[in-house]
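Give me the fold.
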Amino acid sequence: MIKDNVFTIRTLDSGWDWPDIYSDNDIEQYCLEELEVPEEHIEAVKCLNRAFQLTLKHEHSYHNDDWYVNLQRSA
């Protein structure tokens, strides 16, 4: 089964760099501001080594939303 709600992001955009990421809160801010993921869809974020994992709440209502399509391209 493919998990369509878990994304690993390895490349940051819009002037962000890995030294800007200190905590899960920073990752969540990046998801909200740069990836435009609505806060209500974020289940969890996890710091990895020069990457992070974003887990969305498992819903099918967002699969056609622009932010979701862009997120798929970023991962």
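Strands lie at 6-9, 42-48, 51-56.
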